[in-house]
Structures are given as structure tokens and as C-alpha cells.
Amino acid sequence: MSAPVSLGAEDSATLSGLCRIRHDWTRAEISALFDLSFPELIFRAQSIHRQHFDPTEVQISTLLSIKTGGCPEDCAYCPQSARYDTGVHAEKLMTLDAVLAEARAAKSAGASRFCMGAAWRSPKDRDLEHVCEMVEVVKGLGLETCATLGMLTAAQARQLKRSGLDYYNHNLDTSPEFYGAIITTRVYQDRLQTLEHVRDAGIYVCCGGIVGMGEIRADRIGMIATLASLPVHPESVPINMLVRVAGTPLADQPPLDPFEFVRTIAVARITMPRSVVRLSAGREDMSEETQALCFLAGANSIFYGPKLLTTANPERDRDRVLMDKLGLSPMK
Ligand code: SF4
Predict the structure, then answer these.
(1) What's 186's DSSP letter?
(2) pLDDT at residue 229 above 50?
(3) How does 266-276 read in b/e, with b if 16+ C-beta sit within 10 Å?
(4) Tens digit of each residue's pLDDT (9 = 90 or more) over 145-190
């Protein structure tokens, strides 16, 4: 049993309803949150969640891989890296019509946001023009748009903004210290730079990470500390549980304790109170009970649909049943 943890005046202010949004979270404070007893942590996260969101609403996004496989990067968790033999083959960029058909289907299934992912280190200008066309037509359907295309220059970010892009996803993945064990083909600073370009272009930021990659708690603390110290918190914070894909270097990684995953969600909720926290990859192998705990801990977004880029995701019907059981409804 851990001793009671003092979190200081700032935290008390947050709980008493003043809820100043902080960008100066220290690792010690975040560590103290992780160390709280589970009931206390969930209570704090749920209390803060209710100050900013309707706890019965869940934002629903659909993710489509518009350009699959053949990526030159070496992200150790990713089946789309050309360096690993995972059975994922390189495909061409999808056509505009095919993307439009998928977006229409996503909208009629209840999605409010349509995310388009491409397995690139960074987009070539010619490819970016095609993606911008896709953004325009998807936006024309009345959906929010999101893209994840790798590293962007400032000019590319502005071009995407002009096409109507609402969100750009670019994850930090893990702590600065553990990053080199997962990716060697670009550095943490590259990631932060792309986030800066996206923010400067006026696009909302979707940025989170992956847990269960063999990192220790200090790395989960470091990741949240980095996210919560950004000058503006990401509007959307996806927290992914590693999907262990055969052929990737992390295929045999032991699974992370689900309670540690829930704790990570809760700490993200407390430190970034106004951000939508997304229960992202890894739901396929997660029990209904763990997912319910994640919603209690302040997760309020999911990806909906049978596939997450190239890995399985719970079927839409399963999600609908779970949401009905929990009395949750799609966020308007
Ligand atoms: S995560 Fe993205 S950048 Fe990394 S290998 Fe996969 S597709 Fe490429």
C-alpha cells in the first residue's frame, strides 16, 4: 500500500473546479499521479473529465489506410515498415473515388471524423496534392478530416490547411529516452518539429503514443510529461496499446498489465483536461471490462471500424453493443 501522495496546490485547484490548464507538469507530479491508489486515480480523472465533457459521449473516428506498406522507416511496432516481413505488401495511393466511397460508408456508420493514413516517411509534393483533393471531398461530406502522412515541412502543413484539413496525427510514440530503442530513422526532435509546423499552420494536433513496447513506467511518465508540456495541448491524444504483429521486432513483447494501461489513460486525462483522449489501437484484444475502465478513466474517443490501418479492430457491431451496455452515445 503506497503512502498518501501530496500533489500540491495546482492539483487541488484542478480538483476544486478552477481547473487551470497547465503546461508545466513535472515528471515528479506525473509519477505521483501514477502512484495513486486505483480508486483515487479514477475518481480524480472522472471528476476532471466531467468538468469538460459529457461522460456519456464518445467521439467516433474512422481510420483508412490510403497508402499501405513499403515504408522506409524502421518503427519497431509497425507492420508497414518495408524492413520487416509481416505479410503487408506495398500498395499504391488509393484513388479519390475509392476514398470517397469509404468516407461515405464511415459517415453512415456514425463516424464524425475521417482519418487518412499513409505509410510514408514524409509525403512527396505530388502525393500531397492528391491527399489535398481527398481532404476536400471528404470535408464536402460534412465529416471532420484528419491525416497522418509522416513528417511535414511548414509549407506542406500550410497546403493541407488550405485544403481544409482539420487534424493532423503525428504521435510522439514514447518518452524521449526510450525513443531510440523503437525508431532509429528519425529523431524525437523531428517529431516535435512536425507538430510545430502543424500547429503553426492552424491545424488541430492529434498526438499521443503507444504503451506496452517494453518501456518502463518512467517512459510512460516521460511521454505524458512531454505531451502535457507542449505550448498547446494536443486537441486529441490517442493512447495505443501495442498490437504485437508477427514479423516486427516487438512481436514477442510481453503484454502490459491492463491496469497500467488504464492508469496511463487516467493520467493523460488529468494532465490534459480539455483534450479528447482516444482509446486507440489494441482494443481488439482488450476485454469489455478494461475498455469500460478506460472510459471511466476519461477516454472519450475510439476508432470505429474493422481495421486500424493494417491491424484488426473490433467489429462495428461489437462496439455498438458495448456502447449500449455502458449507456454511451456518439459525441455530436
Ligand atoms: S509507423 Fe508510420 S513511419 Fe513508422 S514504419 Fe509505420 S508507416 Fe512508416
Answers:
(1) S
(2) yes
(3) bbbbbbbbebb
(4) 999 999 999 999 999 999 999 999 999 999 999 999 999 999 999 9
Read off the pTM: 0.89
Residue nearest to atom 4 of ligand 1 (CA): 75
- Mutate which of 66, 81, 127 to test ligand 1's pocket (most atoms within 8 Å of Cβ)? 81
Distance CA 64, CA 169 (A): 13
CA of 277 to the centre of ligand 1 (A): 22
The number of CA neighbours under 13 Å toward the Cβ of 45 is 29
Report helix, strand or coil for 82: coil
75 catalytic? Reply is yes
Check: CB of residue 208 under 8 Å from CB of residue 177: no
Q: Largest alpha-carbon pair distance within the chain?
A: 59
Segments in 112-212 forming alpha helices (H) = 125-140, 154-163, 179-182, 188-200
Q: What's the average model confidence in pLDDT over 123-135?
A: 96
SS3 65: strand
> Could you give the CA distance from residue 59 to residue 329 in angstroms, rounded to a whole number?
9
Distance CA(290)–CA(282), nearest Å, equals 11
Instruction: Tell me the β-bridge partners of 307.
Output: 312
Residue 20 in this model has a pLDDT that exceeds 90: no
Residue 71, ligand 1, Cβ within 6 A: yes
Task: Confirm whether 19 is a catalytic residue.
Answer: no
Q: Which residue in 132, 146, 207, 294 is the catalytic one?
A: 146
Counting beta carbons within 10 angstroms of the beta carbon of residue 298, is it exposed (0 to 12), middle (13 to 18) or buried (19 or more)? buried
Q: Which of 158, 131, 124 is nearest to 146 (CA)?
A: 131
Instruction: State which ligand 1 atom lies nearest to the alpha carbon of 150.
Output: 3
Q: Which residue has the higher pLDDT, 14 or 139?
A: 139
